[in-house]
């Protein structure tokens, strides 16, 4: 479909003409392992949701290259602003899988952040685009302190229609603060196709309204994503200049487990994109250039399945939530009102 | 008469209004081909086409603001906000714009707009999908605020809302969309805005509610009546703005005791307004302190806790007994 | 300063090379008379404000060409969405001057619209950018009815930083509805210079984010404004395609009567723009090409002064506002609550 | 001690906090070189430079949203909204974001943010410049809401607001910016959030107010006291969230009569909450219906009508007499 995008590896897993890849085998394998982790997690979550263990779930199936390629660039104390479909990215950045399960269970310990986490991972934005100004503020704070940290802010194609996208990107450009605005253009916002979201053909085009550099990349090519985000952020750590990246990808699954995509898109379209599956591509690349084998692949998948299953076990073993927890964390010090309401509950209980 | 769920009743009202009046158009996110995330606008796209059932970009402020413009020029837009929590990013278009255009222009420009939104808790949804924000609108002059709690009302109130010459916020309790069916007349009918409904008559206490508690309040009340020998009047307010003070005052004047039940957080909720009016108008008739069973003063909780956090049968029953013993 | 803008008449009042003007003398004079009307009104209002008759007042001094050139293109049943500095444009479109004075007085009869007005003039937007989605909605309604009316929506440079600008322009482009988005880029938003509003050099550049055609015009050249808006709207009445126009102009006066611009901008800058005063230019053009004379000019100014003075007289003769009026026009039918509150007031009164 | 206006007292608090703590930064429209449209941030730009006193683009949502981000990473932003009415277009960044980030992240991320806004009526401003919207914030758990009514409180409360680890909405009554001066300590001091102030003691009636009525309420009360021989207790709530229920209940328990005065429209205003709490806690002590003198339930009126529309001395006096005669 698209022209003028950055691609390193084509859908057959071959290096795109004129491109070189600086990554060693182990580095490529590490990216692949993360993608497999996301994929296995997506499958597990979908199954658990069907079994009634999790609430409505928005799968990132098909967007693993975009998420892994970008999130794995982050360094210590960088910031990640995921939205609700970026659970894979959050896992890559260090949120434990069991914590993500707890979030999906609607457990009181949702999004518990380990104290030794390397990257600041903000809880996923549920209100579309609301996280974008936050990322600008955090980036602004790092710039004010002359620190090299950057903020990586994810959002979907739908989010670009929101005022918050506009106000935040504009402000970042005015103040030149180090945010990577990373759009996972997965072609749909629930049932709304990209063409109904905007009259332009590419999100990357929107950068010219703000005076930002922008890049359009093959979002199903993990190496293109990784290399672009790496180059962009290395520069950004010195220049503080914000950048808009559009990763062209596709939501292979339903919008959420409550959605039936057959109402609004064709199987044909989905099939076409299935052929561009980022995992297949990465695997083909590994086989072609790094002697990756099916048996190694199976072993990897099994290892990760076990890891995800164990995480689920830990999440499921948590004691159920207790209402008393809601009265904490509203404020730093509990107010008299909340103290009283908590004690009412306890009397009742 | 067919037995319909509330989702079906609303769908039917939209279908019939649109068939009768081609100035009615719908706009919102995923209301067209997808029929809405709750399927409330199902089949309307097929029936009326993309000019009248419009899937918009993901832009709450532009949905609401362009709906104001549509309404200013003689159309009757029905805008959907996918979940009430997401209305906050278009809030000004309601509070400072839709609500004030009539007074700003001395009636020259008007905004016959209905804003529909699924709302309230209890379906295990993610964060921000379950908030009860009706207070914001009740506190903003120029808006009407309607909350049906059964299919019959939903249909009849929606006709009235669309016919109303002013902006109406029409809040649809999500758990009630498919909670039960009831007989709903197949024709067009108008339930008046601004009129509460006495759901159950009684002499010793008045319970006032709107929305989701409608699904369980009567059994709860009946069991307390049975256990205590008292009789309890139950009022479904249905319209939060303007409030039907008359019906409320008449009831509490008779009973002398009142409990207001709402899902919104307690502090500065609409329950406070109702109690203040009761105390202003029926001070000497009250025999016990007016009470409230509401959401606690916290952000809406995670799914595992919502049933306990929300007003529920146990909390209401306990409070009713306390009130009756006063 | 700027390149690539449209200009018909340069600051000496000479025709710009390669441009032709199709307007007759009387048409040019009509535009000039409207500009003089705006200018005389601005002066009168400023004086009245100082004398305590009016509330805070935002003068459009210096923006007369932009306002008159655009608003005078409007035809019967077109829609005008002014913002608070566009009182001149509103007068051009048919709002009586006394009604504008009443608005500025904070009188209950603010913005009373004559029933026989030709253009729909919405009360000025006080909340920056809030009118832009309204214009889109109205344009949408005319398109749905296949009517040829267009909406002319004014806003300042500051307004382009608002989410409402973005959401509305984007939506107009997606649905192709006939709005002229007309930005009066007067270089300042109160004390905030244009360069602090956006990192790009021109508002017109922002159109590429939405897929709209855009034009950048010399906003102090009434003929350039008139001709551009005329061409654009003629086409728009058939195609319904929205357009973004940036009229480059300058706010010669303070932001409002409560503002002291010497805190944030230099006299030098203001002086430079004074030389580009749109009235001087239009007058020079008339003198040069249409034998306009100083004595005719004086007579015109006097005629208009009288007209504005008379309007003020009528406004000032109105009986003072009565509180009872606030209880009407909240809703079409007065509610019981409001009825009761009105009667309380009357008992008190 | 110098005699300062409220504008000066706020300015001094900002100046001193910023001098002591370089994590405090200001952002907003026209607060820098221009010193704010009310000159409240005067000289701060010169003193602390453009990195710490930042003129932003005209973007309420990005001001508030980026301030959330600044606060999340350890700064203490003080964001100004030029007039409270314009907060509505960034409303979600407060209600769904700033207020909830602590609970959403179980305390891992926090938002020590102060949002300052001039507010309230009485200065003849254009539309949308005079709205009292405090109810919205009081009804939103996770926010504190502060309204000073005199220079001394303004300074001491602002220090506390900036030191507070949670988001605080700090509302500055416009007519009080320069209405009067009073002695304000030159040093840093903290007036506690959540504590009301008994301004005047009395036995027969309690008047509760916040903000602008502070400029005229005492003379009004004194004249009623004199004319009736009663004594009237006057409470400046100062913090609307959390409410100082204790002080309020203690007072009405003693007086048995209450009047709440606020500029916000009456229906579902904070007055209703205060009355509901009073009736819950002091039902048997009340000797007369609780009353309210508030803005009427209309959009804020044109300048020529605001003095009559707002609570004013005449309206309050009349209601006090009525209450005392009950
Ligand atoms: C402000 C807001 N409006 C509506 C919604 C409901 N909603 C959730 S996801 C979604 C679509 C988002 O599309 P996009 O940004 O493209 O992300 P994707 O889901 O495709 O990954 C919508 C409308 C929301 N969460 N927030
Ligand atoms: C949403 C909003 N925020 C802030 C204000 C206060 N305000 C009034 S005019 C103005 C500047 C507007 O600048 P611009 O859009 O360039 O128009 P100009 O005044 O220059 O004509 C501001 C900040 C407002 N009216 N509305
Ligand atoms: Mg998408
Ligand atoms: Mg400007």
UniProtKB/TrEMBL annotation, chains A, C:
InterPro entries: Alpha-ketoacid_DH_E1_comp, DH_E1, THDP-binding. It catalyses: N(6)-[(R)-lipoyl]-L-lysyl-[protein] + 3-methyl-2-oxobutanoate + H(+) = N(6)-[(R)-S(8)-2-methylpropanoyldihydrolipoyl]-L-lysyl-[protein] + CO2. Keywords: Oxidoreductase, Pyruvate, Thiamine pyrophosphate. Residues 33-320 form the Dehydrogenase E1 component domain. CDD domains: TPP_E1_PDC_ADC_BCADC. Its cofactor is thiamine diphosphate. Its EC number is 1.2.4.4. One of its GO terms (molecular function) is branched-chain 2-oxo acid dehydrogenase activity. GO terms for biological process: branched-chain amino acid catabolic process. The branched-chain alpha-keto dehydrogenase complex catalyzes the overall conversion of alpha-keto acids to acyl-CoA and CO(2). It contains multiple copies of three enzymatic components: branched-chain alpha-keto acid decarboxylase (E1), lipoamide acyltransferase (E2) and lipoamide dehydrogenase (E3). Belongs to the BCKDHA family. This is 2-oxoisovalerate dehydrogenase subunit alpha.
From TrEMBL, chains B, D:
Keywords: Oxidoreductase, Thiamine pyrophosphate. Coiled coil: none annotated. One of its GO terms (molecular function) is oxidoreductase activity. The keyword Oxidoreductase applies. Pfam families: Transket_pyr, Transketolase_C. Residues 4-179 form the Transketolase-like pyrimidine-binding domain. This is Alpha-ketoacid dehydrogenase subunit beta. Its cofactor is thiamine diphosphate. The keyword Oxidoreductase applies. It comes from Sulfobacillus acidophilus.
């Amino acid at each position: 479909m698209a022209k003028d995008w950055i691609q390193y590896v084509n859908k057959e897993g071959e290096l795109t003409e004129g491109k070189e890849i600086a990554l060693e085998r182990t580095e490529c394998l590490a990216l692949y392992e993360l993608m497999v982790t996301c994929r296995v997690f997506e499958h597990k979550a979908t199954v658990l949701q069907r079994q009634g263990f999790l609430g409505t779930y928005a799968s990132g199936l098909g967007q693993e290259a975009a998420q892994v390629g970008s999130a794995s660039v982050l360094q210590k104390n960088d910031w990640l602003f995921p939205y609700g479909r970026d659970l894979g990215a959050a896992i890559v950045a260090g949120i434990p899988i069991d914590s993500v399960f707890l979030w999906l269970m609607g457990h009181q310990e949702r999004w518990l952040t380990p104290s030794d986490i390397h990257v600041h991972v903000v809880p996923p934005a549920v209100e579309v685009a609301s996280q974008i100004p936050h990322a600008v503020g955090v980036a602004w704070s790092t710039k004010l302190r002359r620190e090299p940290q950057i903020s990586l802010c994810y959002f979907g194609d739908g989010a670009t229609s929101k005022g918050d996208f506009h106000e935040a990107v504009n402000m970042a450009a005015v103040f030149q603060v180090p945010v990577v605005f990373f759009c996972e253009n997965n072609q749909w916002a629930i049932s709304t196709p990209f063409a109904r979201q905007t009259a332009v053909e590419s999100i990357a085009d929107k950068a010219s309204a703000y005076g930002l550099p922008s890049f359009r990349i093959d979002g199903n090519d993990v190496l293109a994503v990784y290399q672009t985000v790496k180059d962009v952020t290395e520069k950004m750590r010195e220049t503080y200049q914000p950048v808009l990246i559009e990763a062209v990808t596709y939501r292979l699954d339903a919008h959420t487990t409550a959605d039936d995509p057959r109402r609004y898109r064709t199987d044909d379209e989905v099939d076409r994109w299935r052929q561009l599956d980022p995992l297949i591509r990465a695997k083909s690349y590994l086989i072609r250039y790094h002697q990756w084998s099916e048996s190694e692949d199976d072993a990897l998948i099994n290892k990760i399945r076990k890891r995800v299953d164990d995480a689920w076990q830990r999440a499921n073993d948590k004691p159920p939530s207790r209402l008393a927890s809601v009265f904490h964390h509203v404020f730093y010090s509990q107010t008299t009102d909340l103290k009283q309401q908590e004690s009412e509950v306890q009397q009742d209980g | 008469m067919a037995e319909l769920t509330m989702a079906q009743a609303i769908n039917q009202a939209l279908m019939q209004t649109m068939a009768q009046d081609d100035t009615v158009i719908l706009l919102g996110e995923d209301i067209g081909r997808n029929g809405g995330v709750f399927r409330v606008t199902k089949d309307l796209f097929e029936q009326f086409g993309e000019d009248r059932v419009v899937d918009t970009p993901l832009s709450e402020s532009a949905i609401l603001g362009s709906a104001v413009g549509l309404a200013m020029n003689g159309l009757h837009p029905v805008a959907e906000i996918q979940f009430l929590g997401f209305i906050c990013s278009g809030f000004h278009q309601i509070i400072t714009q839709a609500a004030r255009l009539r007074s700003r222009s001395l009636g020259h420009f008007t905004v016959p707009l209905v804003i529909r939104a699924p709302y309230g808790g209890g379906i295990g949804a993610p964060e921000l999908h379950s908030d009860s924000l009706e207070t914001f609108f009740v506190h903003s002059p120029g808006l009407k605020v309607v909350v049906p709690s059964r299919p019959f009302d939903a249909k009849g109130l929606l006709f009235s809302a669309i016919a109303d010459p002013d902006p109406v916020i029409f809040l649809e309790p999500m758990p009630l969309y498919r909670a039960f069916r009831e007989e709903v007349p197949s024709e067009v009918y108008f339930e008046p805005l601004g009129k509460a409904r006495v759901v159950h008559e009684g002499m010793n206490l008045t319970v006032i509610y709107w929305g989701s508690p409608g699904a369980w309040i009567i059994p709860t009340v009946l069991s307390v009546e049975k256990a205590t020998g008292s009789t309890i009047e139950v009022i479904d307010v249905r319209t939060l703005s303007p409030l039907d003070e008359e019906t409320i005052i008449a009831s509490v004047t008779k009973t002398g005791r009142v409990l207001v039940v709402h899902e919104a957080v307690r502090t500065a909720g609409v329950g406070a307004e109702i109690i203040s009016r009761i105390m202003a108008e029926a001070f000497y008739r009250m025999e016990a302190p007016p009470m409230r069973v509401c959401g606690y003063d916290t952000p809406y909780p995670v799914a595992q806790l919502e049933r306990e956090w929300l007003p529920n049968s146990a909390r209401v029953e306990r409070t009713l007994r306390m009130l009756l013993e006063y």
